[in-house]
Amino acid sequence: MKILIVYAHPERKSFNGAMFQEACRVLEAEGHQVQTSDLYGMAFKPVSDASNFTGLQNPDYFKQQLEELHATANHLFSFELKPEIKKIEWCELMIWQFPLWWFSVPAILKGWVDRTFAMGQAYGSGRIYETGFFKDKKALLSLTTGGPQDAYLKDGLQGDINGILRPLQRGILQFTGFKVLTPHVVYGPARMSGEEREYELKRWGDRLRIVADEPEFNVGKY
Ligand SMILES: Cc1cc2nc3c(=O)[nH]c(=O)nc-3n(C[C@H](O)[C@H](O)[C@H](O)COP(=O)(O)OP(=O)(O)OC[C@H]3O[C@@H](n4cnc5c(N)ncnc54)[C@H](O)[C@@H]3O)c2cc1C
User: Fold this and answer.
1) Residue-number span of the structural domain to which 174 is assigned
2) The domain spanning residue 141 has which CATH number?
3) Sign of the C-alpha dihedral, residues 36, 40, 41, 47?
């Protein structure tokens, strides 16, 4: 399988960093083709603006989606975005590895989506959800939290984790056609013992060994 791992954590020695490295190691050992986007490592610029493009249709009034259509037709995406868009098109499975920040992804990853999931390339002309451009691809969120697991149950302090992830899983991934796999959550790695963290890394690796056979996850309605 062709797999893209998008990694968004500012510290390579973090638990997220360990999960990222474990994923690369296991998936390559299983014979998959792996490409990565280490967003902090690349110093990826998350701000979406006219610099997304090497030329503009309307330099007097910037309207991103119209410029995206124009750039798609005229090959005008910036040198920074082109390889990222190519990687998304290439992959059959996309994995995001990130810490939950403010009930969402770190801004660098949200900015990567804002800039690369362009109209004309990822959605548009009525091609959304089941007919989305990425309908033959799968996506998997792999994340860590600060809070414990019981805080992320329906009646917990923070509420159901699947409701928190809905803007990502429904609003971005399914919207553009991806089939979403069950999210992989490690709750509160900073609160764990060394042994518990080792167990979590093994649990992640074991899951990835058979990820190609996983069925789609029902993201539900909240
Ligand atoms: C801006 C911001 C917003 C946040 N919002 C939320 C929120 O909305 N909800 C929420 O729950 N939390 C939130 N948090 C907390 C955040 O989600 C957690 O701090 C993060 O998920 C923990 O993951 P980490 O990789 O940073 O852990 P780390 O603290 O880097 O790692 C935990 C431990 O694992 C150890 N470790 C690293 N590698 C290995 C290895 N190979 N084997 C064993 N141990 C290892 C590390 O040394 C460390 O001791 C927020 C944090 C920030 C900064």
Assistant:
1) 2-213
2) 3.40.50.360
3) positive
